[in-house]
Write a structure and sequence with these properties.
Layout: H1 2-14, H2 16-23, E1 27-29, E2 36-38, E3 43-45, H3 47-51, H4 55-70, H5 82-99, H6 119-130, E4 153-156, H7 165-188, H8 194-204, H9 210-221, E5 226-231, E6 241-243, E7 248-256, H10 263-278, E8 282-290, E9 294-301, H11 319-326, E10 332-337, E11 352-356, E12 366-369
Parallel strand pairs: 1-3, 2-4, 7-8, 7-10, 10-11, 11-12
Antiparallel strand pairs: 2-3, 5-6, 8-9
Length: 370
């Protein structure tokens, strides 16, 4: 504890941005983590591990942990592999710390091949490697295509169950307030570098690709169903639904072929959405093409590549394909449109995600601007 307090004092002088984040975040010494970890609200350090480090390495570990929180890594995992996401996040933030003048712990994952890549982009590359699909990067990979996990620094603690969206939103607001305050302190001290300034901007005003938002929404609304036929073993004295799904049903994609979206664009969007849909393993993916009427359908069974062939070109009424989608009792419907259409007066019975290419009002479903 003595050495860590001294490290915090040193950080206040040399690295005010990281130090301000650190002093505003509760932390705990515990042997329940092998090295260090965070749950996005609190930091955890193993005292034996910390004692084994040099003073400069302690400084690095403190900054590393608080940056996992600042970058909201634990809130952005979605349905990704937990260990692989941890590794991708380590690669992304360790390069930031190296650029900021920290001495990198000798066991830390740090490779310049991932410079200027986000944790999301690094994860995709590592996933390709682990799946034997090629990709670049020299990340420490094992003989079976699996990443070697050196003693995990900055392990992002995995929640025991599905996250509470309201609680996650509250945690995110708290993180952003801390980041804004830390940036102001560093600016006043004249120690907010250009790279950190950009990073702060991305945290406080993220420019998230529509496909990333869509992936997050789809994995949330198509989580395993709740079944009362199985007992939840965590609660032995009462019957609660167990999380289980034999097979996910159908997902419907609707393409508005009447508006300002070109056929090339709609094909691109549909292909991207199809690839995202495959991640949740639906029984089938159905594409409905429509303008003022339903003009055509395509059905792709599980495992089939998505090959969109749009048809239509008249007026616009997206109520028609939404009514048609009801017949299939879909797990989720994704509608691509310019938004200039009559809308249903009530929410549909299925989860609806509207991907809209304009700023016009979308009164139903969850809307994503593309």
């Amino acid at each position: 504890m003595d050495r860590m307090q001294k490290a915090r004092a040193k950080m206040l002088i040399k690295h005010p941005f990281f130090a301000t984040l650190l002093v505003s975040t509760p932390w705990e010494m515990t042997e329940n983590v092998p090295t260090a970890a965070t749950d996005m609200e609190k930091l955890y350090f193993n005292p034996n591990f910390m004692e084994s480090l040099t003073d400069d390495e302690i400084l690095f570990v403190l900054a590393h942990e608080v940056m996992h929180m600042a970058l909201e890594h634990g809130l952005r995992k979605q349905a990704r592999n937990h260990m692989l996401w941890n590794i991708a996040c380590d690669y992304a933030l360790n390069l930031v710390l190296e650029d900021s003048g920290f001495t990198i712990w000798k066991e830390a994952l740090c490779d310049k091949i991932y410079k200027d890549l986000s944790a999301d982009q690094i994860y995709d590359k590592l996933y390709q490697q682990a799946s034997g699909k090629g990709g670049c990067g020299t990340g420490k990979m094992g003989g079976q295509g699996q990443p070697h996990h050196s003693p995990m620094l900055g392990d992002i603690k995995e929640p025991e169950g599905p996250g509470d969206p309201a609680h996650e939103a509250k945690v995110k607001r708290g993180i952003q307030q801390k980041v804004a305050a830390a940036a102001n302190v560093a600016r006043m001290a004249g120690k907010l570098s250009g790279s950190l300034e950009r990073l702060v901007g991305e945290i406080l005003d993220p420019k998230v690709p529509w496909s990333v938002v869509l992936r997050d929404y789809m994995t949330r609304v198509t989580k395993d169903d709740e079944q009362w036929s199985r007992r939840n073993r965590r609660f032995l004295n009462v019957y609660l639904p167990a999380r289980h799904s034999e097979k996910m049903g159908e997902i419907v994609l609707i393409g508005d072929t009447s508006g300002s979206i070109s056929n090339e664009e709609i094909c691109k969007y549909m292909t991207e959405a199809g690839a995202i849909a495959e991640d949740v393993h639906p029984e089938r993916i159905r594409i409905i093409w429509a303008d003022a009427e339903v003009k055509g359908e395509q059905v792709f069974e599980d495992g089939q590549p998505i090959d969109p062939k749009p048809v239509g070109g008249g007026g616009t009424d997206m109520r028609k394909p939404l009514q048609k989608a009801e017949e299939y009792q879909p797990e989720c419907v994704v509608l691509f449109t310019d938004g200039y259409t009559p809308w249903p007066e009530v929410e549909p019975d299925f989860p609806l995600i509207v991907c809209c290419t304009t700023d016009t009002n979308v009164p139903v479903g969850m809307d994503i601007r593309i």
